[in-house]
Amino acid sequence: MLDILYKNNQLIAFNKPANEPVQPDKTGDFSFLQRAEAYCKHPLHVVHRIDRPVSGILLMARSKAAMTTMSAQMKAQKIKRYYLAIVSQAPAQEEGTLLHFLRKNQQKNTVSAFETEQPNSDRAELRYRMLGSSERYFLLLIELHTGRHHQIRAQLSAIGCPIKGDIKYGARRNNPDHSIHLHAWKMEFEHPVSGDTVALTADLPKADPLWLAFWENTPFLQNPNPVLFP
């Protein structure tokens, strides 16, 4: 039961559920890549990764040539990626750009965010916009300008806005299913052969009451062609 968003001879994209590792990890759990390869009946190449507790768009190449082209697009920051995050605190400004320098702790599999460049740190930048709120939570739209390990999670935590359920980055409690409320929502890229623009959208996990509530009460999410950052 795979939620396929896009498929041709070069690429295939899925809406990954939360709590599935993209690739095999130390847990030994069956990975999403293994499921996808069983469906396609041939090896696949992961164009980008999303964390295990995160849901949403996962793009894979079906050939090494397509992977090479898509990797070049990723390196040149030509692939546009937009996420939705539910946080427990509102940011100080409703819209803005975050710039940090992230340094990874290999043993703990976490990153720390600094305002100034540090030894062995990587520059991380994203743009955010608040879309709505409930009594206890706030919905943010995020555009990734760089794609660092745990970038969104660490940067939102650094401004006092940890993602719901993300106890690794400051949330008060985890979600019962160990997911976090971060969803890879939209993606745009150039097709590796035709050069045409491909735009993908992954439905929210509407079995989750909080995602469903924001979906039902945020007209922006239901607009088929929303202006993401006016």
What do these coordinates show?
With 230 residues, this protein is an alpha+beta fold. It has a single domain (4-218), classed as 2-Layer Sandwich (Pseudouridine synthase). 18% of the residues lie in helices and 33% in strands. The chain contains five helices and eleven strands; from the N terminus they run ββαββαβββββαββαα. The protein has helices spanning 32-40, 64-75, 151-158, 209-217, 219-222, and strands at residues 4-7, 11-16, 45-46, 55-61, 80-87, 95-105, 110-114, 122-133, 138-144, 182-190, 197-201. Strands 1, 2, 3, 4, 5, 6, 7, 8, 9, 10 and 11 form an eleven-stranded mixed sheet that branches. Strand 10 (182-190) and strand 11 form a beta hairpin. The protein is globular, with a radius of gyration of 17 Å.
